[in-house]
Design brief:
Structural class: alpha+beta
Number of helices: 2
Distance between the termini: 59 Å
Radius of gyration: 18 Å
Largest sheet: 5 strands, antiparallel
Number of strands: 5
Strand content: 25-35%
Mean pLDDT: 87
Shape: globular
C-alpha cells in the first residue's frame, strides 16, 4: 500500500493590515466603544456616508452573566494597534451599505455580527 501526503494548501488572500491610527475619528470611536462594552449590543448605530455617527450616540447594552463565574475585567489596549479581522470586516460592511441604522453584537470587545434596524 502506498501512502501519499499532500502539502498543497489553497492560496489564501493575504491579510489586510489595518491599524487603528489609519481610521477616521468616528471609526476609532466605535472601536473604543466596542472595547469598553466587552460583551453586549450596540443599538441604533446610525451610519451616514459609510461612517458611524457619534452624535447622537448609539445605545450601549452590556450583557451580564447571571450564573457561573464573573468575567474578569479585560485589559483594553490603548494607543495604536493592528485591528482584528472582525473589525476590518465590520468596516467593510459599513463601506458597502453607505447609510442606515444597525445594531452590532459585541463579544470580547469585537464585533460578532450586525443587523440592519
Amino acid at each position: 500500500m502506498i501512502h501519499t501526503t499532500s502539502s498543497f494548501k489553497p492560496a489564501q488572500p493575504p491579510e489586510r493590515v489595518v491599524r487603528k491610527s489609519q481610521l477616521s475619528p468616528a471609526r476609532r470611536w466605535l472601536v473604543e466603544q466596542m472595547q469598553i462594552l466587552g460583551y453586549g449590543r450596540i443599538k441604533h448605530l446610525v451610519v451616514s456616508n459609510r461612517e458611524p455617527v457619534v452624535n447622537p450616540p448609539p445605545k450601549l447594552c452590556p450583557r451580564r452573566k447571571l450564573t457561573g463565574p464573573r468575567q474578569r475585567p479585560r485589559e483594553i489596549p490603548c494607543g495604536d494597534f493592528i485591528l482584528k479581522e472582525q473589525v476590518v470586516n465590520l468596516f467593510d460592511e459599513l463601506d458597502s451599505m453607505s447609510s442606515g441604522v444597525i445594531a452590532v453584537d459585541v463579544r470580547d470587545g469585537l464585533p460578532f455580527d450586525f443587523i440592519c434596524e
